[in-house]
Specification:
three-stranded antiparallel beta sheet; Replication modulator SeqA, C-terminal DNA-binding domain; globular; mainly alpha; single chain
Length: 201
């Protein structure tokens, strides 16, 4: 029984699982970097492919370990995480950037916090995304000015000002949030599913 009286991992065990998930995420990144170096050094594509496979395995194990840690204790539930947006709190959500797991309180909260974290890690990526990055066919995902997000003015209320001063559209389904974060990850120069992952439940 856990420290809060529910069946599950103890505080100590859950902390160990969390550290293991972070270690595996970092290992996945190292395997991926090694694969790139091997491919660049010579035509040893078999070894590069093996290293990429190891990166995938490590990343998968990290996500599985993270789920164990996330679901183990009441204290890690998203309902106990302060919301940065005032949005409705739903299931267990988080993002993981280079092994650092941040619990969030909603899909909107995940979208905002993750994009802000990517900008802190890669300053200037939001400017590049606004200027030449990928967006939707009928809308922009991020913009320097709020009025540039949507074609219809009444939708501007579905937006949030990021700490960088940029604006992000928040009128998104959970699936769409994941798609936008994948684009954000790639625009920032990180590897989706290895260096950056999200959990939206």
């Amino acid at each position: 029984m856990s420290a809060n009286g529910e069946m599950g991992l103890s505080n100590e065990a859950s902390e160990e699982v969390r550290h293991a998930a972070q270690f595996l995420s970092k290992a996945a990144g190292k395997f991926l970097a090694a694969s790139a170096h091997v491919a660049a050094d010579g035509p040893n594509w078999a070894m590069a492919k093996d290293l990429m496979g190891m990166a995938g395995v490590a990343g998968d194990l990290a996500r599985r370990a993270e789920k164990v840690g996330l679901g183990a204790l009441q204290e890690f539930r998203a309902t106990d995480v302060p919301s940065a947006t005032g949005g409705r709190r739903t299931g267990t959500m988080s993002y993981n950037l280079n092994g650092t797991i941040v619990r969030t309180s909603s899909g909107k909260d995940t979208l905002i916090r993750a994009i802000e974290a990517l900008e802190r890690e890669r300053p200037g990526f939001l400017d590049r995304w606004c200027e030449n990055g990928r967006h939707g066919r009928t809308r922009r995902y991020v913009a320097r000015r709020r009025e540039d997000l949507y074609r219809k003015a009444h939708l501007m209320k579905y937006s949030h000002r990021l700490e960088s001063g940029h604006w992000v559209g928040t009128n998104l389904s959970t699936n769409h949030i994941e798609q936008v974060l994948r684009i954000a990850c790639e625009e920032a120069g990180f590897t989706w599913g290895v260096e950056f992952t999200v959990e939206l439940q």
